[in-house]
């Protein structure tokens, strides 16, 4: 305790000297506390009045759908609302006729452990207590790896499989999971569809999430656009087009939040809303969220640090360090808490910077590096505090403070009486989701030139090159071997060109993972929608390439044979598309997916029976199983049987041989006239098999969150054991 007291006194003296009247520079650019009417002179925390605890009356209306919080005019809130903290004025359009019924959420003795090598031992969040009220913004702040995102996920019921939660979470005074549509969760990094406009993106999201007719969802989309101040960007492409730039990072972040607002959630969880935003975009984001909170929605989000203006918009702050709660309460009371612990905020330093400076252990390395350095004003007086001592001091001070007692009293009041239960708002049917995803994928594919249009051009150019190289073969016996080579090159290398679609497939998988985490989509719905949307484009590629190749090579001039050629090549593309999705789902990385696909295609080409007859291939590996799982084998064999079964070639002037006999030395085929349909059936079954494999990978390889029912059942068992 003597060490803590000495460190606290040392830092108090340095901070006091930094904020003394002699060292103050009256400037409107440096401030964090202002008295009403004094817009020019900054004041230190020592000049601010004393704080008093006030009770908050919780009133639950019978038959209502929200908890009304009546808050008396406390010194902290009155100063925040009257301009003690500088906050930009809300625009006139911030007032909405449509209100959102918020919900209170309370967490009590919340502990989250992460599974180590053998057991759940690492505590990420330790006995945290707090609450969030309708119409307010509650921020979870702390340095990196302090447990902010874990606490947010625990409250929303979205912990990973490797995490386990202990404690209690109440929603409107009831220990209950959050049903679908009652809350929204925005990840730190979300995947948006760049080829859609903001309005289109939100409209398709509404169609995927909400039940009912299409026309009823347009008003919901417009409300979301208006709520997030996206009216000027509603008709702009998210990712840009040609020489047009896409949306800035701030607007992209607001679009990801607007996607969750189409459900009109009672509670909105946001992980790092200011992630990768500059100061202006961050301020605009927080003003927009403040405007959203004014409609009644309960906002809970994490943040690393903020400017003074942004800090002034928060209602309550939960300060974490190494999983420990160092403070929970109103934002201005946090400044008082640091001052009481011996760490007052210097006059020209942002409160959030000061908090992180005091509790971030990474600053100890800076102190060790700079302990012998001097700046223009002498020693580094602002970094002369032991962080571990500061954390212990702040934690001990908070546990014995009136702020902690006020939180416990508020938790008892919010959990004493059960409020209205949150109900699920229903989901769109599976048929509707499949139709929406199919139409959306068609629109994306038609606009994204790298998806299918590039492949179409490449396939047509490559087919034109192959056709001109192998043109003029004639129909003599000597042309058989050369025509086999042409068909092998056509099937093998056009399939290899499909690797160009890997980046587009990876985008689709990321979009699926994002929508699946919020229960907007499913593996089966995604696969069927993607398949139905890709069929027209794959058919276009197969028809255009087949026609060019068929007539340049000079294959048999019969319509039925031409239709089989197109159908065979189309099924081959379907198989290749499924294989690409399988590899992309496994790696979820462009480099490794492309490298793996190239290796697979090379192995399949080697075992397809062209370089060496299948009957002559070595038995282990090359014959079994490679030659049987290579789709090249069945595609080439079917095309050759289509061309040569039923044909004959003259040998001299008297004798003739069948096409099967002419081809026997160049490629293994069956003499049966119906064997080509068997090869086509095998290709079709392979296409189905790859899709089933993709379905399994999407369900188990792409990480999913733990279901909320199982999550809260674990809590109930833990509480009963206690």
From TrEMBL:
Domain ABC transporter: 105-347
Pfam families, sorted: ABC2_membrane (PF01061), ABC_tran (PF00005)
Topological relation to the membrane, as annotated: Multi-pass membrane protein
Transmembrane segments: 452-474, 480-502, 523-553, 559-583, 590-611, 677-698
Chain intervals for the UniProt region annotation (Disordered): 1-26
Domain of life: Eukaryota
Keywords on record: ATP-binding, Membrane, Nucleotide-binding, Transmembrane, Transmembrane helix, Transport
Classification via SUPFAM superfamilies: P-loop containing nucleoside triphosphate hydrolases
Gene Ontology MF terms in the entry: ABC-type transporter activity; ATP binding; ATP hydrolysis activity
Compartments reported by the entry: Membrane
Annotated GO CC locations: membrane
Family: Belongs to the ABC transporter superfamily. ABCG family. Eye pigment precursor importer (TC 3.A.1.204) subfamily.
Name used for this protein in its record: ABC transporter domain-containing protein
Species in which this protein is naturally found: Vitis rotundifolia
């Amino acid at each position: 305790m003597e060490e803590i007291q000495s460190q606290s006194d040392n830092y108090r003296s340095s901070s006091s000297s930094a904020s003394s009247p002699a060292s103050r520079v009256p400037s409107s650019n440096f401030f964090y506390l202002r008295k009403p009417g004094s817009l020019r002179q900054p004041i230190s925390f020592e000049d601010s009045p004393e704080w008093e605890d006030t009770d908050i009356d919780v009133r639950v209306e019978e038959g209502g759908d929200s908890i009304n919080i009546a808050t008396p005019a406390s010194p902290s809130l009155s100063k925040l609302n009257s301009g003690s903290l500088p906050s930009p004025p809300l625009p006139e359009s911030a007032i909405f006729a449509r209100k959102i019924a918020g919900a209170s959420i309370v967490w009590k003795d919340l502990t989250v452990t992460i599974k180590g090598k053998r057991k759940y031992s690492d505590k990420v969040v330790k006995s945290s207590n707090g609450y969030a009220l309708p119409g307010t913004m509650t921020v979870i702040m702390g340095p990196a790896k302090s447990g902010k995102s874990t606490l947010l996920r625990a409250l929303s019921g979205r912990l990973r499989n490797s995490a386990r939660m202990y404690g209690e979470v109440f929603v409107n005074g009831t220990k209950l999971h959050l049903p679908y549509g009652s809350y929204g969760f925005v990840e730190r990094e979300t995947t948006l569809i760049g080829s859609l406009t903001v309005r289109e993106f939100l409209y398709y999201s509404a169609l995927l999430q909400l039940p009912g007719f299409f026309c009823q969802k347009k008003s919901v989309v417009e409300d979301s656009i208006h709520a997030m101040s996206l009216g000027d960007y509603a008709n702009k492409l998210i990712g840009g087009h040609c020489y047009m730039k896409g949306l800035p990072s701030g607007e992209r972040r607001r679009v990801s939040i607007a996607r969750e607002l189409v459900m009109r959630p009672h509670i909105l969880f946001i992980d790092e809303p200011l992630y990768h935003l500059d100061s202006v975009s961050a301020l605009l984001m927080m003003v927009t969220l403040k405007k959203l909170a004014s409609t009644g929605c309960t906002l809970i989000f994490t943040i690393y640090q903020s400017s003074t203006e942004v800090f002034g918009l928060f209602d309550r702050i939960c300060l974490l360090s190494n999983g420990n709660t160092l403070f929970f309460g109103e934002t201005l009371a946090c400044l008082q808490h640091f001052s009481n612990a011996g760490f007052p905020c210097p006059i020209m330093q942002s409160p959030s910077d000061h908090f992180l400076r005091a509790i971030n252990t990474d600053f100890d390395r800076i102190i060790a590096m700079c302990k012998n350095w001097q700046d223009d004003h002498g020693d580094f007086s602002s970094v002369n505090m032991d962080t571990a001592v500061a954390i212990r001091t702040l934690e001990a001070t908070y546990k014995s403070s009136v702020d902690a007692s006020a939180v416990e009293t508020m938790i008892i009041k919010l959990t004493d009486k059960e409020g209205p239960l949150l109900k699920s708002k229903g989901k769109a049917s599976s048929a509707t989701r499949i139709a929406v995803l199919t139409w959306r994928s068609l629109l994306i594919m038609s606009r994204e030139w790298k998806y299918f249009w590039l492949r179409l051009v490449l396939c047509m150019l490559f087919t034109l090159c192959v056709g001109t190289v192998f043109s003029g073969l004639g129909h003599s016996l000597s042309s058989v071997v050369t025509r086999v080579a042409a068909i092998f090159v056509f099937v093998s290398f056009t399939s290899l060109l499909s690797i160009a679609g890997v980046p587009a497939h990876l985008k689709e998988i990321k979009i699926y993972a994002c929508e699946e985490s919020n229960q907007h989509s499913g593996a089966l719905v995604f696969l069927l929608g993607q398949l139905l949307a890709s069929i027209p484009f794959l058919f276009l590629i197969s028809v255009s390439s087949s026609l060019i190749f068929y007539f340049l090579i000079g294959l048999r001039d019969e319509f039925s044979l031409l239709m089989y050629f197109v159908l065979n090549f189309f099924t081959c593309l379907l198989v290749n598309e499924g294989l690409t999705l399988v590899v992309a789902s496994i790696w979820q990385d462009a480099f490794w997916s492309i490298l793996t696909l190239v290796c697979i295609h090379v192995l399949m080409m080697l075992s397809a029976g062209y370089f060496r007859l299948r009957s002559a291939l070595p038995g282990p590996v090359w014959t079994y199983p490679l030659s049987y799982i290579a789709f090249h084998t069945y595609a080439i064999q079917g095309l050759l049987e289509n061309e040569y079964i039923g044909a004959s070639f003259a040998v001299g002037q008297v004798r003739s041989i069948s096409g099967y006999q002419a081809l026997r030395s160049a490629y293994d085929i069956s003499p049966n006239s119906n064997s080509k349909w068997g090869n086509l059936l095998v290709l079709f079954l392979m296409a189905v098999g790859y899709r089933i494999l993709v379905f399994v990978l999407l369900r188990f390889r792409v990480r999913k969150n733990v279901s909320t029912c199982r999550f809260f059942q674990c809590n109930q068992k833990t509480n009963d054991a206690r």
